[in-house]
Amino acid sequence: MDSRNYSLADFISSSNMDIMELAKQFNEYLEDIHLRKQLQSRRVSLSGSGPEMDVIDPYDGHVRHMINMASNDYLNLTKHPKSVAAGIEAVKKYGSGAGSVPLLGGTLDIHIELEKRIARFKGCEDAIIYSNGFGSNAGTLAALLKENDIAILDMLVHASINDGCKGIKTEYFRHNNVSSLEKILKKVKDHYRTKLVVVDGVYSMDGDISPLDEIVNIAHQYGAYVMVDEAHATGVIGEHGRGTPEHFHIEGRVDLVAGTFSKALGVVGGFVAAKKEVVRYLHYFSRPYMFSTAQTPQTAASLIAALDVIETEPELRQNLWDNIRYFRKHLLEMGFNIGNSQTAIFPIIVGDDYKVREICRELHENNVYVNPVQYPAVPRRLSRIRISLMSAHTRQHLDTVLELLESLGTRYGILTPKVAEIL
User: Which architecture, in CATH terms, is 81-312?
Assistant: First the structure.
């Protein structure tokens, strides 16, 4: 099979193949990509997250020491001494697991402490915590929205939000376009019991920020509630790293503030912060919460410590933003199309899946770890290389990557000279 003639979309479903045959065909597609040394998924790290990491090369089995430009560990808290030490102490005290689902026998005092901490951090009355971030979004939406309700989604929201809205009425508005949102709100105003607008605070593929203040104003004007997914905003934006509501000075006005613990906080899990009565409702009706074993004690303890670090070590966020400004300035000066990136996520838009795979192959061979993002994850014309920055990246790391990108961008014909815009 020639992988250049196919995309992942061709293997999502097929009317003339059963699942076993489809899986076989998909394996042939991946094997061809592997033979071209373009397969970038599931590369195995021996050292965990950090600005540099040791990775087993999938083609020769040797260990490569690579610059890591593919992690969501924005503040490098996965290995922060305080977070690690807190997790170790929790394992010693509570053991390796919670032992039950949280609604029955699995709630520990350390879980209650984390709920209170994240609620206070997000400026909300209470919070519910989940074992994973995907289930947090999907489970919350499935619990809150029923047959007579409607979800109004930004067209680029995370997959967990889309999955949570399956089976209910859904409308999509143009990305970050408040006028498009208002048209839908006008249309549905008197036709549904509950109207919920759902957006990401920072979008994971584009790195741009939702105009949350405008969205809250217009949604409330039409009697709709607002939920924001703060996965890539928590710890990164806002004066104190509290996320998009803080960034726009509207803390306390967003009805549901959701997010993951797996990005800047450096661990795993998810949360939803809201009014106490909403949180209590979710305890009983959100299935991923009800039917999943509670967070491990280590997870909860490390997260509490990570929140402490965000509040007491602002220099980590400042270092990250110094890196963001520096990297963005140079990418624009070189002529790369990075869309409307405003945060630590940089899409290098190529618009050609094969070129994306080839550039990523060459970056890998030069010991730079990045992620290819291709159709159907994004439209074909917007296929890209996704780069994310960390606080601990040095200027030498950034300069090495920038030099390689400029050389490859020139060779593959994707540079368009333009005047730099500086944050």
Answer: 3-Layer(aba) Sandwich (3.40)
